[in-house]
Amino acid sequence: MRVLLFVAIALVGSALGDDVPVEENVLVLSKANFDSVISSTDYVLVEFYAPWCGHCKSLAPEYAKAATKLAEEDSPIKLAKVDATQEQELAENYGVRGYPTLKFFKNGSPIDYSGGRQADDIVAWLKKKTGPPAVEVASAEQAKELIAANPVIVFGFFSDQSTPKAKSFLGVAGLTDDQVFAIVSDEKVIKELEADDEDVVLFKNFEDPRVKYTGETFDEDSVKKWVFVNSMPYIVEFSHETASKIFGGQIKYHLLLFLSKKNGDFEKYIEELKPVAKTYQDKIMTVAIDTDEDDHQRILEFFGMKKEEVPSARLIALEQDMAKYKPTSNELSANAIEEFVQSFFDGKLKQHLLSEELPADWAAQPVKTLVATNFDDVVFDTTKKVLVEFYAPWCGHCKQLAPIYDKLGEHFESDDDVIIAKMDATANELEHTKITSFPTIKLYTKDNQVRDYNGERTLAGLTKFVESDGETDAAPGVSEFEEEEEQPARDEL
Q1: Is 476 left (phi over 0), alpha (psi -120 to 50) or beta?
Q2: 225: left (phi > 0), else alpha (psi -120 to 50), else beta?
Q3: What is the mean pLDDT of residues 319-325?
């Protein structure tokens, strides 16, 4: 196998020219060779990366693994990479705004890569983009080889591919980029694989190895959701690689288990909770988060949790503006977690809103400090108009605004009917107001009208906005600030 792989790599280098370096089966591109490689290769996936980027470093071994797998198969698909910090002109030409950015070139035309970041996901996505939606299987031996070669593969058994169910199956195969699909039409092979005509079966190399579709309806949406649910473990470990599937999948409710690997929580709780996760897997995704990971501290902050509360569980509803729910205790027994989840679906849980303790000196400075518990009393006082900055402690734009906002507070300090205030929106939540970017600035008028500020973040612009009751907004723009507000990334919460 190593000899064949070496020959394959040598042939690739020869076909593309001697000036194309190769690292772990990944072509290294630069301005000097980029156009010639793209024009002479039918299928190329290109990663634009930065050497200092953590996500790029996490992707690198999986990317190389995918390139090696394709090389071993003598695939016409090639993987390449560009150091965007060295090749800035190339990065600019292809609209690279963050790292890593992956572009797939098919006969020279680029499209955005939308697959996962693990080797098998990358390979499956590329094969789906370059071949038929489902592999035609002619023998039981071929089927068994495919099952052995893929962590997850979905088989459709259809002696007649023109039936509505067969067409729906192929439709799902075409829409699902991150899984391999296969179709069997030979009735003898169908029987040899212990299936019936028009069965759809998902094979995987973990947990239940063979899962048959038993849904009441058979349409593209139903089958696509079923494939997604059953291709994931009952309890998914949160990581950079799994984040896109967790947040981008069809399941919009997540049960989060906050656990410490160092303390043995994974061994203690995961197996016991798998049956509960399996029971609700078509409604809620169960995710295990290792709180020992430095990268996951933002998630604890998002839920207002301290490490002393680990192990514990939370529930989040993406379809309800990221609403959070907290159990009555930190008990993680199967019975306690099942009761918590069922109570959520029965509508018995109230949303858990974060709030800091109210500082004794909250009103001592020109800019008043608000928390969730005093927000309504201050902001909805009909004798005053209140300007509120919703900020995040880590937000660079908020830090830049701070001295200007302090001067604004000083400007209105002697004005009895104006309050300039701020609230840490990462530590305080309001049922009636959801903040999705930072800083967000809102004016609450005396008649309880709410007006968003979208003008320049200057003292003059903010002053005019307050004095005019929000009727006059400064010209669009953000002065010396960057054009985009900071938003918390979903894969980091």
Answers
A1: beta
A2: alpha
A3: 85
